[in-house]
Write a structure and sequence with these properties.
The protein has about 450 residues and is mainly alpha-helical. It is about 75% helix and about 0% strand. The chain contains 21 helices and no strands. Helix 2 packs across helix 5, helix 6 packs antiparallel against helix 8 and helix 17 packs parallel to helix 19.
């Protein structure tokens, strides 16, 4: 056997084995302090994954899987390519992708099924990457909360930086992998023109209803007891239920799903809401199970929709949960420590040096931020001495990336494209933070 050829194929496995051996060999269990830290890391990983399951899987990910499945099944490939395809006008494609996140209150994980859906339907790499970054980075609630708590200047810098970043990173990714994009264009040109099964406005209204269910079910509580955002929060479940009924009507009239079964699910969900109003997850779960039951037993489009959503769930959910476990062990939850002491982070991001900005961007890229939680976390770090520049770097890198998010992106784009995307986000976030810090301190 050729040894050179052998190790060319096996070097990754060898490195993983060596890394695992070194971790086990140097496991710091001798001192009490080290043992306590390891103990905390173990429990933090479990606490974080439980919190993630409670707060995000049912309300965020499952609706996102259904939306991604709907994009793949009901939206024609021609429509995706017209607005986001590699041959679409760049101004239109990047404008649509870069501002799409303003209405999606999603985190770096919830956006992944949506990204996978549009990318596999024919969206160009550049616009798809712009959507992947902008989705969690510029939702309007996060921008307003940033401006209110951390200051108008930082809120505006975050909004502007996120929009510009999404376009610039998308353009760079499209240029770096332009050969693959050319191959994609050739394949798309050879595809026959699809005849849509229903008018575009019906599909658009259907998708908008699914998105509004996702948005209102995850509407966060405002920091004030008055105002529009708090008013919407107070009636969020009524709005979610209203759009749920609208979805049932759409599925019955336009998608020919059984009206009797849809009515049964609506009634049972309403009864669950009346009986368990203080636990809204229960009626929401009833509605999800009912929708799954109806679509999975449909022999036509509904069955294909459910099967596609299920494929996304099988691919993405295990990787996300594994990533959340690892992130919890390393960094813990807000206010709790994992293996890495929080004091290290606070010390490393003080001032506005190049190192502080890069560390903030790097740490933000690997930490997991749920929707809107990055703002109070940054507020606490600023109170501990974090500079203005590193604060912006963390806000630009953190919501768009996380360790769980990277694992899934790699399964969709491959290792090379994922590394390029992660490095671009870190470098640009650090550079923007450095520039912003220099301006505000001058």
């Amino acid at each position: 056997m050729n040894n050179t050829s052998f190790w060319r194929d096996e070097w990754k496995a060898l490195l993983l084995i060596i890394a695992g051996f070194l971790v086990c060999f140097y496991l710091p269990v001798e001192t009490l302090q080290s043992s306590v830290r390891l103990h905390n890391a173990f429990w933090e990983s479990l606490y974080l994954v439980r919190w993630y399951a409670e707060e995000h899987v049912l309300l965020c990910l499952i609706p996102a899987f259904f939306i991604a499945g709907a994009i793949a099944v009901f939206v024609s490939q021609g429509a995706v390519m017209k607005y986001l395809g590699a041959t679409a006008p760049k101004g239109l494609a990047y404008a649509v992708a870069s501002v799409s996140g303003t209405i999606l209150a999603v985190c770096s994980c919830t956006v992944l099924p949506l990204f996978a859906g549009i990318y596999r339907m024919g969206a160009g790499l550049g616009p798809a990457i712009a959507f992947l970054y902008s989705g969690p980075a510029i939702n309007v609630l996060a921008i307003i909360l940033t401006a209110r708590i951390l200051g108008m200047e930082l809120g505006l810098a975050r909004a502007l930086g996120a929009v510009v970043f999404s376009v610039v990173i998308g353009l760079i990714m499209a240029y770096l992998f332009r050969k693959e994009e050319l191959e994609k264009i050739k394949k798309q040109a050879a595809l026959p023109e699809e005849e849509p099964s229903r008018p575009l406005w019906q599909n658009s209204l259907f998708l908008a209803t699914l998105v509004l269910i996702l948005v209102f079910a995850n509407w966060a509580k405002a920091d004030s007891t008055e105002g529009l955002w708090q008013t919407i929060y107070a009636v969020k479940w009524w709005l979610t239920g209203l759009f749920g009924v609208a979805l049932a009507i759409i599925l019955s009239r336009w998608f020919r799903l059984p009206s009797g079964r849809l009515a049964l699910v609506v009634v049972v969900t309403a009864l669950a809401a009346l009986l368990f109003g203080s636990q809204p997850l229960l009626p929401f779960a009833v509605a999800v199970m009912g929708l799954s039951w109806i679509t999975s037993n449909d022999a036509a489009e509904g069955g294909t929709w459910f099967a596609t959503a299920w494929d996304y769930a099988k691919q993405i959910l295990p990787l996300l949960l594994l990533g959340v476990l690892i992130a919890g062990a390393l960094l813990g939850r807000p206010g709790h420590e994992g293996l890495i002491p929080s004091a290290w982070v606070s010390t490393a991001v003080g001032g506005n040096s190049i190192g502080a900005n890069f560390f903030a961007a790097f740490a933000g890229a690997f930490m997991y931020f749920a929707t809107l939680t990055e703002v109070p976390i940054v507020q606490g770090l600023v109170g501990s001495g974090m500079g203005e520049g590193p604060a912006l770097a963390l806000l630009l890198a953190g919501p768009a990336l996380s360790l769980p998010n990277m694992l899934v992106i790699r399964s969709i784009l491959g290792t090379t494209k994922t590394l390029a995307f992660v490095l671009l986000v870190i470098v640009m976030a650090a550079g923007c933070g450095l520039l912003y810090g220099a301006v505000v301190t001058s």
